[in-house]
């Protein structure tokens, strides 16, 4: 990622986000309403969080400073259709334009750290999504729901 181009970032991002879309599309609205543990929250909230945090990472490309908080755009609801539309809208209307407009030599300031090169900041976004995929594996497993084929193959999960 040191030699960042828009295409290279999107080639890295799309398969990771694609796995998120696959799981979200696989789960039912009823399953998304389930809560695997009292401190975890409903499954749908995990997917909404991914869009919210993506907005924060994208906004930092303009502000040059990461700030976690209220997102630029929000989900219209908690259904599968609402969340799929939300994540697609954040990708198309927030993240991709921000990456296109960013100067490849820009840095982003993170609290308590030296400024990060743009490529490192965007890699943190990818890794944040992967982290949440791991959390989703735990949550879906605790609820004893099935995983879609791509997740079973990518993560070595049982059928």
Explain what this protein looks like in three dimensions.
By secondary structure, the protein is mostly helical. It contains six helices and two strands, in the order H-H-H-H-E-E-H-H. It has a two-stranded antiparallel sheet. A hairpin with a 7-residue loop joins strand 1 and strand 2. The protein is globular and about 45 Å long. 27% of the residues are buried. The mean pLDDT is 94.
Can I get a quick summary?
This protein has helices at residues 6-26, 29-32, 43-63, 80-101, 118-142, 149-155, and strands spanning 107-108, 116-117.
Features:
mainly alpha, 6 helices, 159 residues, 63% helix, 2 strands
Give the strand line-up of the largest sheet: 1-2
Radius of gyration: 16 Å
| DSSP summary: helix tally | 6
Mean pLDDT: 94
Helix content: 55-70%
What is the overall shape?
A: globular
Largest sheet: 2 strands, antiparallel
What's the total count of β strands? Answer: 2
Query: Cα distance, first to last residue?
Result: 34 Å
Strand content: under 5%
Low-confidence stretches: none
Order of helices and strands: HHHHEEHH
Overall structural class, as computed from helix and strand content, comes to mainly alpha
């Amino acid at each position: 990622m040191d030699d960042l181009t828009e295409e290279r970032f999107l080639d890295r991002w799309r398969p990771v986000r694609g796995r998120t879309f696959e799981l979200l599309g696989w789960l039912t609205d009823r399953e998304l309403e389930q809560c695997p543990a009292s401190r975890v929250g409903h499954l749908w909230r995990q997917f909404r969080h991914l869009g919210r945090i993506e907005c924060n990472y994208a906004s930092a490309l303009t502000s040059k400073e990461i700030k976690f908080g209220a997102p630029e755009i929000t989900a219209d609801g908690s259904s599968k259709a609402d969340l799929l539309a939300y994540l697609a809208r954040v990708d198309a209307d927030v993240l991709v334009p921000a990456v296109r407009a960013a100067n490849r030599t820009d840095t982003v300031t993170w609290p308590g750290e030296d400024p990060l090169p743009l490529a490192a900041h965007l890699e943190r976004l990818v890794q944040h999504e992967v982290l949440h995929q791991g959390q989703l594996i735990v949550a879906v497993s605790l609820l004893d729901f099935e995983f879609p084929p791509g997740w079973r193959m990518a993560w070595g999960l049982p059928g």
